[in-house]
Amino acid sequence: MKINSNYDNLVPNYLFAEVAKRTNEYIKANPDKKVIRLGIGDVTLPLAPVVVEAMKQGADELGHKETFKGYPDYEGYEFLRQAISDYYKGFGVKVDAGEIFVSDGAKSDCGNIGDIFGEDNVVMVTDPVYPVYVDSNIMAGRKIVYADSTAENGFAAMPPKDVKADIIYLCSPNNPTGSAYTYDQLKEWVDYANANDAILLYDAAYEAFITDDAPRSIFAVEGARTCAIEFCSLSKTAGFTGTRCGYTVIPKELERDGHNIYKLWYRREATKFNGVSWPVQRGAAAVFSEEGQKQIKENIAYYQENARIISSAMDELGIYYTGGKNSPYIWLKCPNSMGSWEFFDYLLENANVVGTPGEGFGKNGAGYFRLTSFGDRENTIEAVNRIKKLLAK
After folding, report:
1. CA-CA 20 to 30 A from 75: which of 49, 149, 331, 340?
2. What is the pLDDT of residues 277-297, one digit of tens each?
3. 3-state secondary structure the chain
4. pLDDT, tens digit (0-9, with 9 covering 90-100), for 224-242
5. pLDDT reported for residue 246
């Protein structure tokens, strides 16, 4: 019996597990300290009332023979897929309900999509990078190449001229750097993917935070339907981190290596995934209702104000950062030339505030730090005041 030896190539500790370990050790040693967590991007506001009511109704329907539901459709119920399709129409993008797969979240699909691709494909990710893109492909034994995101390009990497890749991961607005690609920048990536017969895996989990004219979907870009797959999530847009629901869009015309990509993914899902529960899909559909959109936009505005509060503090302190606008993340340069883990410990011990060391997202994250706006308002203001007091010395 052999294990998958590719796991030996993974970094021993997952980034957020190490953050939690250090934080918990500090709290245990200092039980009298109030520690404020602005590290992991988990939401704090409750589900919108219209969503809760829809979930309750869905659960009640399962208690009656006439409305009971068993296994859901592999691609998700049609009423939810149509609601998502209509949502895309709301910002000028045409996505057919028949091209949508409902899932338990963008993270799962970003990792699982590799099941339909050969192991000998070259994978390109930007650096800094959301760890799932890297780790899931290391597990599969694929070669990974990097496109550098740095202060020089506003932490928005562009296609390297001398590197060819078969699979490309992009995230915009970006986790962790908060940068959002413009239309022209995305068009360059789409052209690169089509020219290299590659597939672009586009993570749009934070699209609802966009406030300017940056594209909210890769399919707003000409040429994307022949090279792109889009992943999106209700975790950050509607607070579904605990209930789990997202969706993946695969154009019906997308083909590679003589195979239709939609059909391959459908086959994978039919084999390995039994769908999202009825109450959760009922709640997800309520997100896209008129009242649902009104309620979740109020929650998003709350987090956007938190981001503005944090960004304003960085401006006041004269600290370079990206994000804050179009994104719930603020990606800042560590002060006094500190390393990112050094700054993590310094901030935890002296301000009792937890963030995420940029080094955990790749080599270009060294010397940078991520703060999240997903905390509650009172704690965000208190954390910012502590940081200002500490760094203004």
Report:
1. 49
2. 999 999 999 999 999 999 999
3. CCCCHHHHHCCCCCHHHHHHHHHHHHHHHCCCCCCEECCCCCCCCCCCHHHHHHHHHHHHHCCCCCCCCCCCCCCCCHHHHHHHHHHHHHCCCCCCHHHEEEECCHHHHHHHHHHHCCCCCEEEEEECCCHHHHHHHHHHCCEEEEEECCHHHCCCCCCCCCCCCCEEEEECCCCCCCCCCCHHHHHHHHHHHHHCCCEEEEECCCHHHCCCCCCCCHHHCCCHHHCEEEEEECHHHHCCCCCCCEEEECCCCCEECCEEHHHHHHHHHHHHCCCCCHHHHHHHHHHCCHHHHHHHHHHHHHHHHHHHHHHHHHHHHCCCEEECCCCCEEEEECHHHCCHHHHHHHHHHHHCEECEEHHHHCHHHCCEEEEECCCCHHHHHHHHHHHHHHHCC
4. 999 999 999 999 999 999 9
5. 98
